[in-house]
Amino acid sequence: MTIGSFFPEEHVVYATALGTQVCQDSRRTLAALPADSVDLVVTSPPFALLREKEYGNESQNAYVEWIHTFGVHVQRVLKPTGSFVLDLGGAYERGRPVRSLYQWRVLLDFCDNIGFRLAEEFYWHNPAKLPSPIEWVNKRKIRVKDSVNTVWWLSKTDWPKADVKQVLAPYSVRMKQLLKDPGKFYSPAERPSGHDISKGFGTDNGGAIPANLLQIPNTEATSSYLRRCKAIGRDSHPARFPAALPEFFIKFLTGPGDLVVDIFGGSNTTGRVCEDLGRKWIAIEERRDYAALSLVRFADDELTDEALSALVREAERTAVDIQTPPRQLTISLAAPS
After folding, report:
1. Reduced 3-state DSSP string for 24-92
2. Which comes out higher in pLDDT, residue 215 or 175?
3. What does CATH list as the number for 3-164+210-321?
């Protein structure tokens, strides 16, 4: 089935082996997709910040109503086993050292009024984040640095697809020592907490179950994306999340060949991760300049800066295929029978 069956050709920016970059209001793109056809929507929308950003962001007062309209469309296209992962950064009330509750208002609205389930809450700790807001943290020194985002893992039903074995964390040094000689470190018994520590506690399962605190520094000063943007004289997207964040949830909540959608594509980190992991993907970005520039994540390393710059300019005008050799722009989006 050709991509034109779902997206007008003028909204297609580029295509790769597994995915498509679309330039459009994502609500319209989602409306074109069949119901129950998407395995995962993972995204980081513009936050409800007080300062207006170049890429656009809604005010705190209007934010819940605004993001609600996207949530309704996401809920429709998700499979019964699908998930919606939403990264939201914190904010303060205007002129006051008091935190906004907008992330929790979004969560309650999505669950109470749209019908999502909160499968689990996650917190992304970015140790590299700069101190902010300046007034309360740097000048008056009455608040600490805000370095944690809330990440809501929402599902359409009680039983979304998930496999912790795909995201096991490395064992600690002490756990590795325990596995070598379990009897030296513990005796099987029920602990005062009620936990039954059996002989199986000393089994090597390939890694530890990760916590819902994801410690991922957002530092990519030397990344290929920034390097190539600079090489062709383009300003990169100003708000990028690290690849490790969508990677965790894509591995955790999908399998090879599943369809992942990012409804606020930005620099298309999600699409790049999907391409590497063998997932089909659709990235949606309303600004054509950002959408076109994101193709530098997929361009051949041997492509000269001049050729890459020309390709980006072409993508700003019309759909391009960045594979070699070229192929027809196609994607399978059939709803389950």
Report:
1. CCHHHHHHHCCCCCEEEEEECCCCCCCCCCCCCCCCHHHHHHHHHHHHHHHHHHEEEEEEEEEEECCCE
2. 215
3. 3.40.50.150
